[in-house]
């Protein structure tokens, strides 16, 4: 039944309750710091800047104590797709007219600019995927919601309902494991009735036909769960205008300030140091 373990096969997007330096930071500091690194790595257009970003991400991986093998496992599945994108960069990246090709065969020419673009793309995607894994492993759902709620709290003075947005995000995240568990239960139930699941090599058409019977009961189960959740929220007196309190009070310490400052320095170096 290992082929039906949908939730356990998801290495990315799962929170790991560890006692690390990164886990103990204020969620506002973690969200703001990681966002700075993500934006800087995305905007950076130099291999040196992307290299600094990878060093910063490696430092985050160390202070988070997240197993490196899990992060590497998250990179394996999208690797073929990334290699295809990198290969395209070799041929579609523009170059100067007087540039000499590094490699030439039967009319196919590869220039230095294309090689640099391919390397930069691989570095960026590898860093962003690893960073997403680190952030999801070190920021729980409640921390994410309360952190966003606290960061966007000043927007309430402009009449923006941040409580509704954070609640919607929280419900969305909580539905992801529910969908995985429901899909696993339905697939096992259908397999026990003789349905073929993952048996041998299958064509794309057969895989689509295999998934359709799973989607209909999964959709019905999701609607029932959503209706039950809505009734429970109404019974508990949930209102969009009411202010919500948290189970834990978060305080911004000097360690959080130091962590945020370190992320800011890394972001500055990635963008402005050539």
Total number of domains: 2
Mean pLDDT: 79
As laid out across the biggest beta sheet, the strand order is: 1-2
Strand content: under 5%
Order of helices and strands: HHHHEEHHHHH
Number of helices: 9
Report the count of strand segments: 2
Q: Report how far apart the termini are.
A: 52 Å
What class do helices, strands and sheet pairing give? Answer: mainly alpha
Give the topology, please.
Elements: H1 27-43, H2 47-64, H3 68-76, H4 79-92, E1 103-105, E2 108-110, H5 112-138, H6 141-151, H7 162-192, H8 204-235, H9 254-272
Antiparallel strand pairs: 1-2
Helix pairs in contact: 1-5, 1-6, 1-9, 2-5, 2-9, 3-5, 4-5, 6-7, 7-8
Please provide a written account of the structure:
The structure is a single chain. This protein is mainly α. The chain is built from 9 helices and 2 strands, in the order H-H-H-H-E-E-H-H-H-H-H. It has 2 domains: 11-160 and 245-274, no CATH class; 162-240, no CATH class. A two-stranded antiparallel ribbon has the order 1-2. Helix 1 packs antiparallel against helix 5, helix 2 packs parallel to helix 5 (112-138) and helix 6 runs antiparallel to helix 7.
Protein traits:
2 domains; single chain; 2% strand; two-stranded antiparallel ribbon; 65% helix; mainly alpha; 274 residues; 9 helices
Give a quick rundown of the structure.
By secondary structure, the protein is an all-alpha fold. It is built from 9 helices and 2 strands.
């Amino acid at each position: 039944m290992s082929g039906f373990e949908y939730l356990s096969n998801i290495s990315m997007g799962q929170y790991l309750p560890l006692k690390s330096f990164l886990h103990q930071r204020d969620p506002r500091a973690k969200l703001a710091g990681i966002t700075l690194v993500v934006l800087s790595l995305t905007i950076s257009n130099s291999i040196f800047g992307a290299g600094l970003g990878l060093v910063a991400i490696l430092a985050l991986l160390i202070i988070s104590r997240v197993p490196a093998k899990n992060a590497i496992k998250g990179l394996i599945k999208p690797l073929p797709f990334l290699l295809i994108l990198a290969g395209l960069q070799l041929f579609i990246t523009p170059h100067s007219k007087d540039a000499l090709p590094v490699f030439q065969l039967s009319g196919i020419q590869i220039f230095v600019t294309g090689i640099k673009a391919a390397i930069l793309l691989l570095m960026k995607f590898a860093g962003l995927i690893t960073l997403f894994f680190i952030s999801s492993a070190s920021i729980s759902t409640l921390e994410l919601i309360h952190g966003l709620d606290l960061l966007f709290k000043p927007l309430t003075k402009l009449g923006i309902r941040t409580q509704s947005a954070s609640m919607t995000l929280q419900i969305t995240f909580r539905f992801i494991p529910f969908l995985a568990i429901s899909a696993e239960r339905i697939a096992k139930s259908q397999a026990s009735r003789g349905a073929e699941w993952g048996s041998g090599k299958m064509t794309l058409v057969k895989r689509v036909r295999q998934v359709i019977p799973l989607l209909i009961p999964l959709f019905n189960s999701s609607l029932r769960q959503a209706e039950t959740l809505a009734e429970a929220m109404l019974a508990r007196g949930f209102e969009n205008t009411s202010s919500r309190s948290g189970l834990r009070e978060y305080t911004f310490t000097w360690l959080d300030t130091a962590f945020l400052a370190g992320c800011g320095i890394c972001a500055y170096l990635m963008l402005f140091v050539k």
